[in-house]
Specification:
The chain has 13 helices and 6 strands. By secondary structure, it is of the alpha+beta class. A hairpin with a 4-residue loop joins strand 1 and strand 2.
Length: 270
């Protein structure tokens, strides 16, 4: 078996297992035999381009992974990956700017699948400065994105002022592990976040300290010089994106979880 075939088979198995599907379930969805699915995943059979496309669509694989699989199988990639500042994405950028502006004074930020910070509104800039006093977060001069997972694990980063880290941390870790199962490039950052939680909470608290939720949505509470600030999040994504860059984008909207938080943001964000 040649190396490219081995890579292809490993990727196909990884994507299927990330969706917790058996070979039998996948074969029924694709309308092929379980034997053929097994042969493709073991490298004993070469899938057609059409089968691969249907296979990846059925597993809802990220577009970037679909392109990788096509290349591993010896086919041309299917999806484009335009730069965010490409003139062809002018309408997309306008929509993002509108979402960020409309959400002020509440924080809103644009991130990609690697948790790189690409855009943020005035509320987001203010909150970053409030959580990391003296080190306001903005985009670097060379437009190199800041990574939010790196900021979470930094000793003076965003996790430090979280009051209910024992509640928020394990939930976020489970979410990040799921993302890393499909995007292996995230694994080192997820491992670093887990190590930080072990250090901050202890192994016993991290894995066994579960309590009944006290609110309909998970709320993150921060200790700041302005008092306790509490937020819950909603995410906006593009519907049926056909470009890798757009598929990777999501806008996180933070909403005040109480009147005190809303009053602080309204007074401070000008």
């Amino acid at each position: 078996m040649n190396p490219s075939t081995q890579t292809l088979t490993s990727t196909l198995r990884q994507v299927r297992k990330a969706q917790r599907l058996s070979q039998l379930e996948l074969s029924l969805r694709l309308g092929v035999s379980q034997r053929h699915v097994s042969f493709v995943e073991s490298g004993r059979a070469k899938p057609s381009r059409e089968l691969l496309l249907a296979w990846l669509q059925e597993l809802d694989a990220p577009l970037v992974v679909r392109n990788e699989v096509m290349l591993q199988a010896g086919y041309a990639p299917v999806y484009t990956a335009a730069l965010l500042d490409d003139p062809a994405l002018e309408q997309i950028n306008s929509a993002l700017a509108q979402l960020l502006f409309a959400h002020d004074p509440m924080p809103a930020l644009v991130i990609d699948e690697h948790w790189n910070l690409l855009r943020l509104n005035r509320g987001g800039q203010w909150l970053a400065a409030a959580l990391m006093p003296g080190a306001a977060v903005d985009l670097p001069p060379d437009n190199t994105p800041i990574n939010l997972l790196d900021l979470l694990v930094h000793p003076e980063g965003f996790a430090k002022p979280i009051i209910n880290l024992e509640e928020v941390g394990p939930t976020l870790l489970a979410h990040l592990r799921h993302e890393a199962s499909v995007q292996p490039a995230l694994t080192p950052k997820v491992d670093a976040f887990e190590a930080m939680l072990h250090s901050s909470l202890g192994t016993e608290n991290l894995h066994t300290n579960w309590s009944r939720p006290t609110a309909p949505v998970l709320t993150t509470r921060y200790a700041t010089e302005y008092g306790e600030l509490a937020f819950f999040s909603m995410f906006t994504t593009f519907g049926t994106p056909q470009d890798i860059t757009l598929a990777s984008l999501r806008v996180e909207h933070l909403f005040a979880a109480d009147e005190a938080t809303y009053a602080v943001l309204k007074a401070q964000v000008q």
